[in-house]
């Protein structure tokens, strides 16, 4: 029997502070561009849970320490794929499992499950994005209700270079529109903050030095509104989005994501299809990778 208390995510990976009615939650792995290993994501879940339980906190800002918001999943040596954590969505422990029983359980819990928990928080959340927000970073930002981006922020998903349709929580058509989502995925090209604003994905674009001040001003304005009214308005929009296919669509594409992993594992022995941190580095640099299907 697995000891589910084996590993608890360190609090210093994600910082939590509150100023008045506004909580600020900060991803704190700047040395790896806030790349997401299990420890970081579970620490982020702890911070969101703290925000949910904090009656003095009305709005949360999610930020990233350092020059980049998040470079996505940690594919390097600091990743922790085979580590047990206190699970949040009642999936079995993936550690020690093989094949789909490992990947499907881990990614259902760590990516889809946690992102849905954060999206469904009854309080408003704002992502303050600077620099790179790529691949897994998109899922975290999209889990927030609003995105305030600095003028130097950029967005990209190079998952196709791994032979995968897109990141696990596939919000692309709802965030970008169908045709722009296809171009975004087919080319792996960066989307600038200004372009993302024109598409409606980003709420506001500000200068880098004004990012946190602008996000805080917006959060403080929202925090003055009635809590129940905000919760119901958020739930209303989320329910309408789900009726437009968001929930069933993301479930369906997650199945395709797992199919791609299984194909890669069967044909190459690597569930990422030979992809590596170099793919992420190219996305950070603004170029698409090329791989053999």
TrEMBL record:
GO molecular-function term, one example from the UniProt record: catalytic activity
Superkingdom as given in the UniProt entry: Bacteria
Family: Belongs to the enoyl-CoA hydratase/isomerase family.
Protein name: Enoyl-CoA hydratase
Native organism: Rhodococcus oxybenzonivorans
